């Protein structure tokens, strides 16, 4: 596949040694603090179906690596199963050797022990590599953890490690701190991935979970630093005014990343981008010399606390738009409906959200009235949202 050169963009290329890095003791080397996530890459519509824009995605992944990003994260379900394929294509031509590659075992598809190696082999083929650096048991919660133990997943992964198919074993996590503590103490994990941002400091594993990983010396990667993009924009005038009140002017995105850079024990902060411009803006932020633990002053912590309170007081639903709930068998676009509801709640006006819903969702056949309450979405939601109830509330407001 011929990849067009990177067009002129607003990114100051500083070379590979200027991206902020963190030492990973398991890997025995520095890894870029910014890890490129591939869950929200550019898409296009082909024959009525939304698919990854492969050429643009490959250009973005390669440009990130050329600019100093050394950690790439994908997973079996991302982009309907296409993400691993596109990541594999991007890592050809010598790029694979330049990165730590992470993907994840879809443990919910493991019905018997033999499924583990079958899925791993499928992923190796899609990624066009003979090994995965970090292989994570994906999205562990209490139910998936029981399935992991029942099917001897960890023992099989140790076998795969001995065979050289994977280098290191880890997990990603979505559940309460109590479940997190049990899982972390059960196995000698070589990396644990948790959801953390300044809204979720006390949610799921939270900062308490990060402290446990730090205490045990387990490398930690962070997902959802922008909470599915919700922290990328001020949300309302009150939040915008708070950010603007600080003497040093920073984007909402930078404030969110700085909250995490300030914390000890984080090895990688994962962030996906739906455009080259977004990704380059992120790389600029992570190339700043002061993106280090302890970078926030007391005044900055207080400011973030004020912003956090406004978000939490107004948010309709704690949805990160991960789309694990999709596709809905009845065609309901759950993330989009929740996005409109959160926008309306933050703006304290549902006028625009109602226009979207009545002009797009209802005529398009993806509004909440289509829900038959089968519950399939809730069984996959990492945030444990009562989706059926929230859809009813949303329809009552927007229809």
Q: Would you give an account of this structure?
A:
The chain has helices spanning 54-66, 83-90, 114-127, 142-150, 153-162, 177-186, 206-216, 237-245, 252-261, 276-286, 298-314, 334-347, 351-364, 376-380, 387-398; strands at 21-24, 29-32, 34-37, 43-46, 49-52, 71-73, 100-105, 132-140, 166-173, 192-195, 220-223, 268-271. The N and C termini lie far apart (46 Å). Helix 2 (83-90) links the parallel strand 6 (71-73) and strand 7. Helix 8 packs antiparallel against helix 11 (298-314). Residues 1-16 have low confidence and may be disordered. It folds into 2 domains: 16-314, Alpha-Beta Barrel (TIM Barrel); 334-398, no CATH class. The chain has 399 residues and is an alpha/beta fold. The longest helix has 17 residues, at 298-314. It is built from 15 helices and 12 strands. The strands form 3 sheets. It has an 8-stranded parallel barrel, surrounded by 7 helices. A two-stranded antiparallel sheet has the order 1-2. Strands 4-5 form a two-stranded antiparallel sheet.
Give me a quick take on this structure.
The chain has 399 residues and is an alpha/beta fold. It has 15 helices and twelve strands.
